[in-house]
Specification:
Elements: E1 17-25, E2 28-39, H1 43-47, E3 57-70, E4 75-92, E5 105-125, E6 128-142, E7 166-169
Antiparallel strand pairs: 1-2, 2-3, 3-4, 4-5, 5-6, 6-7
């Protein structure tokens, strides 16, 4: 296997991250954020591709929630909805998907994750604060750009791997 020489490449991209909070009263706060991000191709992805235009993977995220303080700040409750969309994920193409690109790998995959995060904190005594949280997560593999299929061994609509639907901590 030999990889062709790639010309030098520099990419500059603005990835805004915005957040806002509004205090309704002394005990209630509404919060929200929006942001974008990139992940450049890894050394492994660059070493085993013939695609000189392999681009960074992109993400767009949004969340909104409410925090409520009770009993003079002895109890803090928070609930947040989040939505993450992933674009231009790098995939290796073969078989019936080889027609989607002239290269062995390309930025064609998409996925999403959304759900809710819920937390509660209690201060039973002045020197201790106990906090627990629970996350409900729904993920989905979306079709490859230019296709109605996903990269094998996955299928469209299947949950992402290594992403638990239920998780929590204390």
């Amino acid at each position: 296997y030999s990889r062709p020489d790639f010309p030098a490449n520099n990419l500059a991209r603005v990835n805004p991250k915005l957040s806002a909070a509004y205090v309704l009263d002394a005990a209630t706060r509404i919060h929200s954020s929006f942001g974008t991000g990139i992940r450049p191709p890894s050394g492994f992805e660059l070493a085993f591709t013939d695609n000189p235009r392999l681009a960074p993977e992109r993400t767009r995220s949004f969340d909104a929630g409410v925090e409520r303080r009770l009993l003079h700040d002895l109890v803090v409750l928070d609930g947040t909805y989040f939505y993450n969309r992933y674009y231009d994920l790098i995939v290796t193409l073969g078989g019936s998907l080889a027609t989607l690109s002239h290269y062995t790998s390309a930025n064609l995959a998409n996925s999403r994750a959304e759900g809710g995060e819920f937390s509660a904190g209690v201060r039973p005594v002045r020197w201790m604060f106990v906090r627990g949280s629970y996350t409900l997560l729904e993920t989905r593999i979306l079709s490859l750009d230019g296709s109605s299929q996903a990269q094998l061994p996955f299928s469209v609509g299947q949950p992402l791997t290594r992403r638990p639907e239920h998780s929590g901590n204390l």
